[in-house]
Amino acid sequence: MKEMKSLHENNTYELMELPKVLVASMNLEIEQLDVKTAFLHGDLEEEIYMEQPEGFTIKGKEYLVCQLKKSLYGLKQALRQWYKKFDSFMVEHGYDRTAFDHCVFVKKFSDGEFIILLLYVDDMLIVGRDIGKIDKLKKELSKSFEMKDWGLQIRFLAKPVSSPLGSHLKLSSKQSPSSEKEKEEMRNVPYASAVGSLMYAMATVKWILGYLRGGTVSWQSRLQKCVALSTKEVEYIAITEASKELLWMKKFLQELGLQQERYLLYCDSQSAIHLSKNPTFHSRSKHIDVRYHWIRDALEMKLFFLEKIHIDENGSDMMTKPIPIEKLQF
């Protein structure tokens, strides 16, 4: 309760309507379910023995041990065995496991309707146009597993705000409280509690979709695995990494029956774009790992297209740097 109070006092989020994305544009219903004690459903393939649980020892049989028939929480096999159990259930009911994401199952019906089920550990989303077919699947799931039906998925989206830290400001350990009085004052500030709540939410919320100009965004921000000698090389390597994600999403959506005329990858570095499209820059790029030059072959085969985006229109900057709210208002 203390954490939630801090979130409300800091206006961490605001309820708003979901932007028009795939689910909205195709007029799809989306339901959320949770499998209770999911790991206990897995069937074990090995012989595993354990001592009788403390406090539940059967009188007169204290010398006996338990031979496990099902998975238990804490077993290294538990997650895998649960997935295999669920996978066999979906296949038996006519659902196809997608080749590009084994946690997504699809079933197409003769009347043109379809159902997509997304599994994340013990949570799942069911998407489709026919609510009757969705309800039928939910009933079948309830026969085999103990389910908790959350109904229509609850959506929380953040309200755009300016980044709290200006780009000209620098943080230092010297700014930390030094005296006992300053430390005591800091303990009364709910900042740490709010950050802890956000970290908890980040670790427990299973489906996180980013929305940018009405479309879903797959993004990440992490250290590159090699040392670059210039910002151009940094952008060049980032383009290669982004293109791999783009091609995966392209094939995944095509497997779901969704086609698109052109697949665009935007970059705000003109130098990196020229380096990607022009293999004659050998003297400037020969020290870069060969695997990053794969982007040139991909562009030549027209698997996707690479274009320049102006810095004022690059909304993805909000993922990596402090920016004013005006830049987020398109």
Automatic annotation (TrEMBL):
Annotated segments matching region Disordered: 163-186
What organism does this protein naturally occur in? Answer: Vitis vinifera
Q: Where is the Reverse transcriptase Ty1/copia-type domain positioned along the sequence?
A: 13-158
Could you tell me the gene encoding this protein? Answer: POLX_3408
Here the segments flagged for biased composition (Low complexity) are 167-178
| Top-level taxonomic group | Eukaryota
- Lineage of origin: Eukaryota, Viridiplantae, Streptophyta, Embryophyta, Tracheophyta
Task: Write the protein's name.
Answer: Retrovirus-related Pol polyprotein from transposon TNT 1-94
Q: Which Pfam families match?
A: RVT_2
